[in-house]
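2024-03-11 09:14:02 INFO worker-7 job=invfold-0412 stage=load source=structure_tokens
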């Protein structure tokens, strides 16, 4: 279940976007509010600021010669103001501590997995958007030496325009988002939905009437997010295209989990319902033991407790 596309809807709520899977399942996304983004950035900036203060204090205590102190601190500030965001967005699926606190995350604007290249690009642009003009505004001599007074005016305009950029486009993109091909949305809550397997035929994980059996290795491939996608497929697939849609989803899952080639046929709806029930039970069991698998990429990153 990968390879998504984002479609903008011009409905009453212009902040809504739809992430459409190859199976035609539309997953609703809501663009992050400018105030929430500013709040998240403020939280992250405060964390970076106090980390820098702590490191400055440690450098002072370490007794590094004055000639090296300024250069060391300059490198340190550059690293923190860049790699702090890159590290957390790579580690936490597009979320920094500030974004996570306010329920936001970065997603690929064209769909699919958020790549390291996109994260690096959007965060390096933050230097051009914010830190360089801020430095030019507060300490112009650090950049321009004995430059003329109009430098501060130019820096102020630069900072004003770039910081307010998300207000001037429909997808609320800052320059870094435009370069990296990303956007910031509210993070959907990853919760287990009402059991569709129980609604359909009261099948349980130990019911001997199940046709298909799945190993732990096969169930570990997917997480809560994919369970929700499968939920939508089973609930919304109807009409004359139902069998075709279910067959396409069943085939993709079978290929992904390494289903035996000689067993690729069969009833797609029965396969999907049995897989849904087994995957749900597997995820619920893991959550009882403190293991949370949010999506299929969690297995690649290793378990979290």
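2024-03-11 09:14:09 INFO worker-7 stage=emit residues=305
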């Amino acid at each position: 279940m990968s390879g998504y596309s984002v479609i903008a809807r011009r409905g009453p709520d212009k902040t809504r976007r739809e992430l459409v899977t190859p199976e035609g399942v539309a997953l609703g996304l809501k663009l992050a509010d400018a105030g929430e983004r500013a709040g998240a950035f403020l939280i992250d900036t405060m964390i970076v600021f106090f980390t820098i203060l702590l490191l400055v204090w440690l450098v002072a205590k370490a007794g590094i010669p004055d000639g090296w102190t300024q250069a060391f601190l300059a490198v340190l500030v550059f690293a923190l103001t860049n790699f702090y965001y890159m590290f957390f967005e790579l580690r936490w699926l597009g979320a920094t501590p500030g974004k996570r606190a306010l329920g936001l995350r970065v997603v690929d604007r064209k769909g699919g997995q958020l790549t390291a290249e996109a994260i690096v690009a959007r965060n390096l642009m933050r230097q051009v958007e914010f830190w360089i003009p801020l430095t030019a505004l507060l300490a112009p001599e650090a950049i321009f030496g004995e430059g003329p007074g109009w430098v501060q005016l130019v820096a102020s305009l630069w900072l004003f325009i770039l910081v307010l950029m998300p207000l001037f486009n429909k997808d609320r993109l800052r320059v870094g988002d435009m370069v990296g091909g990303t956007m910031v949305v509210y993070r959907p809550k990853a919760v287990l939905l009402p059991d569709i397997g129980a609604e359909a035929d009261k099948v349980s994980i130990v019911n001997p009437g199940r046709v298909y059996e799945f190993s732990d290795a096969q169930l570990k491939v997917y997480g809560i997010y994919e369970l929700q996608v499968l939920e939508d497929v089973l609930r919304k697939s109807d009409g004359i295209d139902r069998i075709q849609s279910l067959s396409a989803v069943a085939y993709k899952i079978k290929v992904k989990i390494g289903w035996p080639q000689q067993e690729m046929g069969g009833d797609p709806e029965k396969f999907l319902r049995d897989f849904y029930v087994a995957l749900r039970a597997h995820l619920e069991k893991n959550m009882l033991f403190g293991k949370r698998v949010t999506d299929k990429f969690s297995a690649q990153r290793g378990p979290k407790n």
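2024-03-11 09:14:09 INFO worker-7 stage=report msg="Residues 34-62 form the longest helix (29 residues)."
2024-03-11 09:14:10 INFO worker-7 job finished
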